TrEMBL record, chain A:
Belongs to the ku80 family. InterPro entries: DNA_bd_Ku70/Ku80, Ku80, Ku_C_sf, Ku_N, Ku_PK_bind, SPOC-like_C_dom_sf, VWF_A, vWFA_dom_sf. Single-stranded DNA-dependent ATP-dependent helicase. Involved in non-homologous end joining (NHEJ) DNA double strand break repair. DNA-binding is sequence-independent but has a high affinity to nicks in double-stranded DNA and to the ends of duplex DNA. Binds to naturally occurring chromosomal ends, and therefore provides chromosomal end protection. Required also for telomere recombination to repair telomeric ends in the absence of telomerase. KU70, of the KU70/KU80 heterodimer, binds to the stem loop of TLC1, the RNA component of telomerase. Involved in telomere maintenance. Residues 6-212 form the VWFA domain. This is ATP-dependent DNA helicase II subunit 2. GO terms for molecular function: ATP binding; damaged DNA binding; DNA helicase activity; double-stranded DNA binding; hydrolase activity; telomeric DNA binding. Pfam families: Ku, Ku_N, Ku_PK_bind. Keywords: ATP-binding, Chromosome, DNA damage, DNA recombination, DNA repair, DNA-binding, Helicase, Hydrolase, Nucleotide-binding, Nucleus, Telomere. GO terms for biological process: DNA recombination; double-strand break repair via nonhomologous end joining; telomere maintenance. It comes from the Eukaryota.
Automatic annotation (TrEMBL), chain B:
Pfam families: Ku, Ku_C, Ku_N, SAP. Its main location: nucleus. One of its GO terms (biological process) is DNA recombination. Belongs to the ku70 family. Keywords: ATP-binding, Chromosome, DNA damage, DNA recombination, DNA repair, DNA-binding, Helicase, Hydrolase, Nucleotide-binding, Nucleus, Telomere. It comes from Orbilia brochopaga. This is ATP-dependent DNA helicase II subunit 1. NCBIfam families: ku70.
Length: 698, 643
């Protein structure tokens, strides 16, 4: 968790803030608010109670602050929002208060004093990061007498002052306002000096707005995932030569998850007349099947349940005593199994996020010892392999450790490796040679690149080298370095939540921040067009028409190339599907159909078979088989673009299901085997409502 | 995963927070597989191993070192089937398996139907196996007389058409809607049907299996005197399943080599276990090699942490054991009224209230374009840091299904990356509305193809914790190098050498309880360091290093006396070096603390201790040190109560 923080936003609400300047469509106040709301909502979305905000307006029509009673120079200054954690009510109330006033009266410097007062009263002597953010258009009068005193106080209280102005000049940013009023020019100069004296940040608001486009990264305080010993040798106490180093392990990478949505209930009209979402509580009940009970199941009390596992169909209860036997006992530690050359680890074997290992901070001897370990690994270009148990009785994992040596920092970094069981023994065809059905090896084949193709690919890859490019978001970082790439979903969701929270009536979603997708395309500076054109030409890749795909299956020949279709002719000519082999025969006959009018009788036959499987089923035992036939029927009807036949069959099937057999319909619904939707065949006119009514109605 | 969560039979039953990032993987795992072993029984299959090819003895005199029992081919096959059964029954308890013998004198089929499939013996019906079935099989394998009675070959071999049709019937009736259905044929007979009519019949029945979605996975046995010739019969009944051009061509790889009988069992076992899990693609998407140059690829997970199987709640009080089903009811918290599914809306918490979007909007928000692997440039492989890793890599291989020419373009890219030691950088959306990630496209020579290594985002990178920077002097580093050289494993990390000990124990205990066998009293843990070897090869050197460390510490104290101050903070200086002396120090710190805490516990004054002390102590005991003070105190009390 980050440190406690108190921030006061001081915002200029003069009548002149309501004007539009520099050809902007927004008023100065609207323009300024872009920055203000971004900052505030970022704080809100962190959801920290210890991150408090206050807002002070100046050049307001009214005066509302604790200093004005005794001193008239604090007039036209309002505390719009007292110091507190900002939540939705504060956001809404502030939104209603941010309007340009009808006056230019009111002193910005006094407003800063009000802000300092708010901070002092709230934070007292406690440890807070104190910020004042001052936003103005720089017009009006600034009372500059006694500024030195204020500067001293700001420094004493360690307040970070930021002053941002609408259309302030900034040579570095490259902005100079044309036709600036002398008054504003003077104010700018004075504020700049004041800010510099306080050690604060001074700038033009355009730059700040540009900066907030860059997503902010939420810092997480490092939390150790393991504290214990790195051990070489036997540490059970029997050996005299065991190396033991106090270490701590912290995440180096960890997925930053986007905010997750929770389920809420939309109030029904009877229960509530407000439309705020209601919290949901889940309760869990437990049942077992019991044919004699009403509803065929009985509720079970938690105490009547034991824990256990499935051994195939066999249920294996594990008693409390057995629990102890099942447990794999371990002791928390990181034991070194051995060392391997760096090249001895296939990179794709890395399984997990990475963690860094450092010596215990307070133990110089351990730091020294680990340093020798890190440097020795580095010099031998090796990795350490270890068995890590992060807590007693946790299952062990095997990790690989590599040294990292930076100018002022050194550590080990580990990733988890797979166990024997974690490897799936899939086999894949080689890419450099083709083995034919008869076992002949070939190195010229349509699957193997020709020399031309290889050459074109080599040239293209070389042309697309991005090694020397700058980062797209931060030019000081190399191209596509992880530090330069932001998690698109994380920031997108945060963006839309904040937008919706501050403008709940807005029905459209804000455009995606281009920074988030900057790495979704090749950078335009690369010049690989010629090479790519040539590569495309020699590669000669062709799209397989969708129709050809569907028909393939029934025409397939065995490895030998034997013409099975011919052997099947006798069968397919008969046009009679056998009850004991429906799926293959239906497929084969559909595949051999020559005229469209031959399709309908086959669909009819298959339909009859499905109905009779359902009728003859012992309870629901054969339903699975019927579902499979139905699936195939549907698939083939879609392939042959005769979905009407399927639709009329499934309607007929539904109405034919009576009495006991009605439960089959839930299978149809579950497998989504109902009416064909326009997404499956564009000629369909079935709406989602039609489809749903068909599934659920009787 | 916490112990509580492990017992929770429905992981969705939490507070309703959704996290669908792993959805794809669970869907992928929920696909069920049905495997039927079909084992040919013939004179050569059941022949005792000693009677065949004595030539091996002349070559190498193998008999001397062979202590393993030797099995006939048929028995080897049965034992392989048993091994696979016992493994998969635990790791995939919902998969189906069955064993069909063909060419037996006896005939047996499901429902007592013996006329349709003569000389086929259904030893184990295609179903989710149970303990009783496995015990039966074990009993058979332990009783040679009964086994040989069963394995008696018929005079006339079984018709292959019947075998295929029997399999067809089993898969159709028992394993309807299974995504994966496979027929493992184990045989040494490469030309079973010489009669034309019988042959045609077998060929059409094989086509039926193909159209039914059943894949034939053959394990052919060759002997030195007879090499299995696939082209005689099997090439007419096996199909190239399109996306896997190699499976069939290579599947006879290991078992197909002419081998002597004694190593055959091992080879058969490794060939069959390699195939025990069906290969399934994780996704099938487009790969954009360059703008407008699109090919088809499929992704596979080659590495995936295997966890012990899920536990269930069980009802023991009824007549028989039953699995308890849990149902979640959702209610409005205030009114306790049940919530209908249509009433549920997803919302984000923000500023103490909720911000919600319609489903349509959520889809739009999550949508960053169609699924694609788009290469945006290339970099040297050295640019990928060791710590640039988030999760297991994904293997990709070309597919001609949607784009012809995909394979050659993919191969050309692979060649170039491998030869020039380059990697691609790509924008990757594995499926519709999945969160996009950046990935390194990494060439691999075994297996041949490309791996996708997910890169961390800037948001995923954590800051380093602060640690004083003290660099070891060269002489200390040199001593450590001596140690490392002695403990070097030059062949690198070979995962096959390290079975997961916790998982293996789980398997063994569960199996022993299910089959009512003795619990094994010792479990082998190959991940434990080989202490004796370490002592033997590096013991002396570790002591040298320990001495060098003491010396370096002394030097350090002289040059920077101030560090002593924070070095001894809180009295836990321990563990810098070797040898017992230092180890004793390790125990000192917590020891004192133990006494203090114990005293507080006895006086019922734990709550008077500070949170820091409690946390420290809990941490040292390897217990969780999070939570409020009351929880910490409770945890400490628990510890002493159970002591």
């Amino acid at each position: 968790m980050a440190d406690k923080q108190a921030t006061v936003y001081v915002i200029d609400l003069a009548a002149s803030m309501g004007l539009r300047n520099n050809a902007r469509h927004e008023t100065d106040l609207e323009y300024t608010q872009r920055y203000l709301w971004d900052r505030i909502t970022t704080t809100v979305s962190n959801g920290r109670k210890t991150d408090v905000i206050a807002v002070v307006g100046f050049r307001t029509d009214a005066s509302d602050n604790s200093l004005v009673q005794s001193d008239a120079s604090y007039e036209n200054i309002c505390v719009l929002s007292p110091m507190s954690q900002f939540l939705m009510p504060q956001i809404r109330s502030l939104q209603n208060l941010l309007h340009p006033s009808h006056t230019e009266e009111g002193d910005g410097i006094s407003a800063i004093v009000v802000a300092m007062d708010l901070i002092e009263k709230f934070c007292k002597k406690l440890k807070y990061i104190r910020n004042i953010v001052f936003l103005t258009n720089g017009n009006g009068m600034y009372e500059l007498d006694g500024l030195d005193d204020i500067t001293k106080q700001i420094k004493d209280q360690d307040i970070k002052l930021t002053i941002l102005g609408v259309d302030f000049d900034d040579v570095e940013f490259g902005f100079l306002e044309a036709g600036k009023s002398p008054q504003k020019g003077q104010n700018e100069t004075a504020l700049k000096r004041f800010c510099e004296d306080c050690g604060g940040i001074f700038g033009t608001i355009a730059e700040a707005i540009e900066e907030i486009q860059r997503p902010r990264i939420k810092r997480t305080r490092p939390v150790a995932s393991f504290k214990g010993h790195l051990i070489i040798g036997d540490d059970s106490g029997t050996s005299n030569s065991t190396l033991v180093i106090d270490i701590e392990r912290y995440p180096r990478t960890m997925v930053a998850k986007p905010p997750s949505a929770s389920s809420f209930a939309v109030p029904t009209q009877e229960t509530s007349n407000s439309d705020t979402l209601q919290k949901i509580r889940s309760t869990r009940t437990y049942q077992v099947e019991d044919d004699n009970a009403p509803g065929k199941s009985i509720d079970i009390e938690r105490d009547d349940m034991a824990k256990g596992y499935l051994y195939g169909r066999t249920i294996v209860p594990i008693s409390a005593e057995d629990q102890e036997v099942v447990k794999f006992e371990t002791t928390a530690s990181l034991q070194i199994i051995g060392f391997i050359p760096r090249a001895g680890l296939d990179r794709p074997l890395s399984q997990s996020n990475s963690n860094i290992l450092v010596a215990s901070k307070t133990n110089d001897k351990a730091i020294l010892a680990l340093s020798s370990f890190i440097h020795a690994l580095y010099e031998l270009d090796s990795l350490a392999i270890g068995r890590l148990v992060t807590k007693d009785d946790r299952p062990p994992v095997v990790v690989a450790m590599a040294p990292i040596i930076e100018p002022e920092y050194e550590c080990l970094v580990d990733v988890q490796l797979p166990f024997a069981e974690d490897i799936r023994q899939y086999k894949f065809a080689p890419l450099d040679i083709i083995k034919t059905a008869t076992g002949r090896l070939m190195n010229k084949h349509r699957f193997i690149p020709s020399e031309d193709l290889q050459e074109a690919m080599n040239d293209y890859v070389d042309a697309m080298d991005v090694t020397s490019l700058e980062g797209l978001n931060d030019p000081s970082i190399p191209f596509a370095q992880p530090d330069d790439i932001f998690s698109p979903l994380l920031h997108r969701i945060q963006q839309v939540i904040r937008a919706r929270a501050t403008a709940p009536d807005e029905s459209t979603l804000p455009d995606i921040n281009p920074v988030l997708v900057s790495y979704s395309m090749s950078p335009s500076v690369l010049e690989g067009e010629e090479e790519l054109a040539r590569l495309k030409q020699v590669a000669d890749v062709r799209l397989v028409p969708t129709k050809a795909k569907g028909r393939k299956i029934s025409r397939e020949k065995p490895l030998s190339g034997l013409d099975v279709a011919k052997l099947l002719e006798e069968r397919t000519k008969a046009q009679r599907i056998h009850m004991d082999n429906p799926v293959p025969e239906f497929r084969q006959m559909i595949g051999s159909v020559q005229q469209e009018r031959d399709i309908q009788p086959l669909v009819k036959q298959m339909g009859d078979i499905i109905k009779s499987i359902i009728q003859q089923s012992v309870a629901d035992l054969q339903y699975g088989q019927a579902v499979e036939c139905l699936k195939v029927l549907r698939e083939e009807c879609l392939n042959l673009e005769v979905f009407e036949l399927y639709d009329s069959f499934i309607k007929e099937l539904k109405s034919s299901l009576e009495g006991d057999r009605r439960d089959f319909w839930s299978r149809v619904r579950k497998e989504k085997l109902g009416l064909v939707l326009p997404s499956e065949d564009e000629r369909s006119t079935v709406t989602p409502e039609d489809s749903s009514r068909f599934y659920y109605s009787r | 995963m916490s112990a509580d969560k492990k017992w929770e039979s429905n992981p969705d039953a939490g507070d309703g927070d959704d996290d669908d990032d792993n959805r794809d993987e669970t869907e992928y795992l929920s696909q069920r597989d049905a495997t039927l072993f079909a084992i040919e029984i013939s004179n050569s299959m059941v022949a005792p191993p000693d009677e065949e090819d004595d030539s091996m003895d002349i070559d190498g005199g193998k008999k001397k070192k062979n202590k393993k029992p030797r099995y006939s081919n048929a028995e080897s096959a049965l034992r392989c089937a048993e091994a696979v059964l016992k493994n998969r029954i635990i790791s995939n308890p919902s998969d189906m398996m069955g064993i069909l013998l063909f060419g037996t004198e006896q005939t047996k089929y499901a429902d007592g139907n013996t006329s349709s499939y003569p000389n086929c013996f259904l030893l184990m019906d295609l179903d989710i196996p149970d303990a009783a079935g496995i015990k039966e099989l074990k009993y058979l394998l332990d009783n040679p007389d009964e086994l040989s009675e069963l394995l008696k070959p018929s005079e006339k071999p079984a018709a292959m058409a019947s075998v295929f049709f029997a399999a067809n019937h089993l898969f159709t009736t028992k394993a309807a809607n299974f995504n994966s259905r496979r027929l493992f044929i184990i045989t040494d007979n490469d030309n079973p049907e010489t009669d034309k009519k019988a042959r045609t019949s077998a060929q059409t029945r094989a086509k039926d299996l193909y159209d039914l979605g059943v894949r034939i996975e053959p394990f052919f046995i060759s002997t030195p005197s007879h090499e299995f010739d696939k082209s005689l019969f099997y090439a007419d009944v096996m199909y190239d399943t399109g996306d896997e051009p190699d499976t069939l061509l290579d599947s006879d790889g290991d078992a197909g080599k002419p081998t002597d009988a004694e190593s055959r069992y091992d080879q058969m076992l490794s060939a069959i276990t390699a195939k025990q899990a069906p290969r399934r693609a994780l996704f099938s998407i487009k790969m954009e090699v360059g703008k407008g140059l699109v090919i088809g690829i499929k992704g596979y997970l080659l590495y995936k942490r295997v966890e012990p199987s899920r536990s269930h709640y069980i009802h023991e009080r009824g007549e028989k054991l039953q699995i308890v089903k849990g149902t979640t009811t959702r209610m409005v918290e205030e009114t306790a009224q049940e919530v209908a599914p249509a009433q549920i809306r997803k919302a984000f918490k923000f500023g103490g209230e909720t911000v919600s979007f319609s489903d349509e909007e959520m889809k739009k928000i999550r949508n960053f374009g169609d699924p694609v692997l788009r290469i945006i440039g290339f970099k040297p492989q050295t640019e990928l840091q060791f710590w640039h890793n988030m999760r297991p890599s994904i293997f990709i291989h070309p597919s001609e299904e949607d784009y012809t020419g995909s394979t050659r373009v993919f191969a050309a890219l692979w060649n170039k990356l491998l030869n020039s030691k380059l990697m691609g950088i790509a924008w990757f959306i594995p499926r519709r509305n999945a969160a996009p990630v950046m990935t390194a496209v990494w060439p691999s020579s075994e297996p041949q193809g490309l791996f996708l290594i997910t890169l961390p985002f800037a948001d995923d990178i954590r800051q380093n914790p602060e640690v004083p920077h003290i660099v070891a002097p060269n002489h200390l580093i040199d001593r450590m190098q001596d140690v490392i050289r002695q403990l070097h494993m030059p062949r690198g990390y070979i995962p096959e050498k390290y079975p997961n000990p916790a998982l293996q124990k789980h398997y063994k205990v569960l199996e022993a309880i299910a089959l009512e066998e003795e619990l094994p009293d010792k479990f082998e843990d190959k991940t434990l360091p080989k202490y004796k070897n370490i002592e033997k090869h590096a013991g002396r050197l570790l002591e040298d290093w320990g001495e060098a460390l003491e010396q370096s510490m002394a030097e350090l104290r002289l040059s920077r006396p101030q560090i002593e101050v924070h070095g001894t903070k809180r009295g836990r200086e321990p563990a810098g070096g070797t040898a017992k002396k230092i180890k004793k120090e390790v125990d000192d710190g917590p020891g004192d603390m133990d006494a203090e805490i114990r005293a507080a516990y006895d006086k019922n004054a734990l709550s008077k201790l500070t949170v820091a002390v409690l946390k420290d102590w809990l941490g040292n005991k390897g217990l969780s040190a999070t939570g409020k003070k009351a929880e910490l105190v409770e945890r400490v009390e628990e510890y002493f109560e159970n002591k």
